[in-house]
Amino acid sequence: MFDPVCPSDLTPIRFGDKWYGMIVRCLEHGPRRFSELRVPLRGISAKVLTRTLRALERDGMVVRTEHPGPVRQVEYELTPLGRSLLEPIAAACAWAEEHWEELLDAREAAVGPPR
Amino acid sequence: MFDPVCPSDLTPIRFGDKWYGMIVRCLEHGPRRFSELRVPLRGISAKVLTRTLRALERDGMVVRTEHPGPVRQVEYELTPLGRSLLEPIAAACAWAEEHWEELLDAREAAVGPPR
DNA sequence: CTAACCGGTATCCCGGTGGTAACCACGTCA
DNA sequence: TGACGTGGTTACCACCGGGATACCGGTTAG
User: Other C-beta atoms within 10 Å of A80: how many?
Assistant: First the structure.
C-alpha cells in the first residue's frame, strides 16, 4: 500500500501540479488556443502554462496542433485519456462545492481558539 | 472561473500536500495510531507525518485523541467531513487503476522518439 | 515606422515541500 | 542501569514549483 512503485501512489489525490487539472477542465468543451487558456486561468504565467501543457502532452492527455497559416495558431485538445480525467475531477469539484465551507469553518475555528 | 477566491480553485485536483489524501485513506477503516500510520505510508518521515496530521486536524478532517494511561497512546480518526473525502479519493484511485498504464505508455513513448 | 498580438523561452528569485539526522520526555523491560 | 518504544520537535538542507520580468521571431494593424 502506497508503495512508491504502486499506482495508488499516483492517486490520492494529486494529479500533476497546481494547474494540471484546471487546464483539463478548461479544455472540456473543445480545443482552446494558448491565449484562450490564459483567460480563465487567472494569473497563470506563460512559463507555467507552457510547462504544464508540455506535461499534459507528454502524458497523452492533450494534443497540440499548430495550424499552418500566415498568423500563428496553436490549439490544444483533450485526448480520450485526458477526457477520462474529467470524471475524477468532477468528483473532486463536487466535493469542494459541497464541503469547502465546512473546511474553511474548521480552519477559522482552528486559528482563533486556545490550544 | 478558477478565481483565486473561488472554491473551484481548491479542487482540480490537489487536496493538500503529497500525503494528505493518503493519510485519509489509511484512516478509512477506523482510528490508527501514529506509528501504525507510518507502516503503510512507506518512507514518510515523522516530521512530515506530524505536519500533515496537524493540517488534517486544522481542516476538521481528523480528530486527535490522546488516550490516558501508563503508556502513551495517540489515535487519529476521521471526522464525517474527512470521511466525505473518501468519495472523490476513490474516484481518483479508480481512474488511476484503470488508466495509469496508458499514462505510463504515453510517457515512455514521449521520451524516446524524436521531436 | 511603430505598436501590438501570438506563442512562446530565458532568467532570477523566493518560499514551500520533503528528506535526514539529532534530540526529547516519558514509560517499560531486562 | 541501561536499552528500547512511543510520539513527537528541532535544525539543516536540497530541490522544485511557481511568480515576475524581460525578451524573442513572426505577423498584422494603425
Answer: 10
CA-based nearest distance A34→chain B, Å: 16
Query: Does A113 contact B at CB distance below 8 Å?
Result: no
Domains along the sequence of chain A with CATH: 7-111 (1.10.10.10)
Q: How high is the pLDDT of residue B115?
A: 39
Q: What is the pLDDT of residues B53-97, one digit of tens each?
A: 999 999 999 999 999 888 899 999 999 999 999 999 888 888 888
Q: Is the CB of B46 under 7 A from strand D?
A: yes
Q: In whole angstroms, what is the distance from residue B27 CA to residue A10 CA? A: 18
**Inter-chain touch B58–A110, beta carbons under 8 Å:** yes
CA nearest neighbour of B9 among A106, A105, A103 = A103
C-alpha A30: how far from chain center: 15
Whether A114 shows a pLDDT value over 80: the answer reads no
